[in-house]
Design brief:
- There is one protein chain.
- By secondary structure, the chain is mainly α.
- 61% of the residues lie in helices and 5% in strands.
- Strand 4 and strand 5 form a beta hairpin.
- Helix 1 packs antiparallel against helix 2, helix 1 runs antiparallel to helix 6 and helix 6 runs antiparallel to helix 7.
- It starts with 5 loop residues before the first strand and ends with a helix.
Length: 275
C-alpha cells in the first residue's frame, strides 16, 4: 500500500432504508437531478414571455426522463456490453443489474426532445436550449453517486491526492468521478446558465453543452480507468473518448451556425410556425 494516501472507506450504497424499501445513493442522485430540473424549469417558465407553460415543463421532463432511461440502457449494452447481449439478449432489459451510458442517454434525450417539439409545435433548438442548462446538476449528482459507490475509478497515479480504492487494488488512483463532478457538474452548469442569462442566440446553448461536455469527458478519460472488456482503441482512446468526438464536432458546428449563420435557426422557426 502507498503511504500517505486516503483509503476509500467503502460507503454503504443504500442511502435510506425503510423496512424492505431501500433507496440507493445513485437512485437518490437521479432524483435530486430531476427535482432540480423541475424547479428551475418551472421558475423559468413563469417568467414573462418565456413561451412555456407548467404543463409543457412537466411533459418535456417526462419525455426527457424516458429518453435517459431507455437511451442510457441501450447505449450501455450496445456500446459497452455488446458481447454480453449476444450471449443473452435478455441482458438488454435487465436494468436492475446496473449499467447506464451517458452517450446513449444523450441520444435518447435528443430523440425525446424532438418528439416533444413536434407535438408542441416548437422548434427543436427552442426546446433543447431550454433543457440543456438543467442537465449538468444531474450529471454532477450522478458522479457523486459513482464516488459513493466506489465505482468508475481512475487510473493508477502517484499524485499526492490519489485515492486507494480497495476494490481496484491497493495502489492510489485518480478520483476521476470527482474530476467529472467538477467539470461536468459545476463548470458546465455555470457556463450554460451564464449563456442562457446572456440570451445567447438560438442553438448556442445546445452547442455549448455538446462541445463542453465532450471536451471535459475527453480530458478526464485520459486518467479514468478504461472499461476492462474494451480497453483502449489504438492503445490511446477509450470508448468514452470515441463517443465524445462527434459531440465536440457537432457542438462546434452548432456554435458557428448560431453566431455566424443565425438565419439557419430563424428559417427553421418560421417553417415550424407556419405549419
Amino acid at each position: 500500500m502507498s503511504e500517505g494516501h486516503w483509503v476509500f472507506p467503502g460507503f454503504d450504497p443504500i442511502a435510506i432504508q425503510i423496512g424492505p424499501l431501500a433507496v440507493h445513493w445513485y437512485g437518490l442522485m437521479y432524483l435530486l437531478g430531476f427535482v432540480f430540473a423541475w424547479l428551475v424549469a418551472n421558475w423559468r417558465a413563469a417568467q414573462p414571455g418565456s413561451g412555456w407553460t407548467k404543463d409543457q415543463v412537466s411533459d418535456v421532463l417526462f419525455y426527457g426522463f424516458l429518453g435517459v432511461i431507455i437511451g442510457g440502457r441501450l447505449g450501455y449494452v450496445f456500446f459497452y456490453q455488446f458481447d454480453a447481449f449476444l450471449d443473452d439478449p435478455l441482458y438488454l432489459i435487465k436494468i436492475w443489474t446496473g449499467g447506464m451510458s451517458f452517450h446513449g442517454g444523450l441520444i435518447g434525450v435528443i430523440t425525446a426532445l424532438w418528439l416533444f417539439a413536434r407535438k408542441q409545435r416548437k422548434t427543436f433548438f427552442a426546446v433543447s436550449d431550454f433543457i440543456a442548462p438543467l442537465i449538468p446538476f444531474g450529471l454532477g449528482a450522478g458522479r457523486i453517486g459513482n464516488f459513493i459507490n466506489g465505482e468508475l475509478w481512475g487510473r493508477v497515479t502517484d499524485v499526492s491526492w490519489g485515492i486507494i480504492f480497495p476494490a481496484a487494488g491497493m495502489l492510489p488512483r485518480h478520483a476521476s468521478q470527482l474530476y467529472q463532478f467538477a467539470l461536468e457538474g459545476v463548470v458546465l452548469l455555470i457556463i450554460l446558465n451564464v449563456a442562457w442569462l446572456l440570451r445567447a442566440p438560438r442553438g448556442a446553448v445546445s452547442g455549448l453543452f455538446l462541445l463542453c461536455y465532450g471536451l471535459f469527458r475527453f480530458m478526464v478519460e485520459f486518467v479514468r480507468e478504461p472499461d476492462a472488456q474494451l480497453g483502449l482503441y489504438l492503445n490511446m482512446f477509450s470508448m468514452g473518448q470515441l463517443l465524445s468526438m462527434p459531440m465536440m464536432l457537432a457542438g462546434g458546428i452548432m456554435l458557428w451556425a448560431a453566431f455566424c449563420r443565425p438565419q439557419w435557426y430563424t428559417r427553421n422557426d418560421l417553417l415550424t410556425e407556419n405549419k
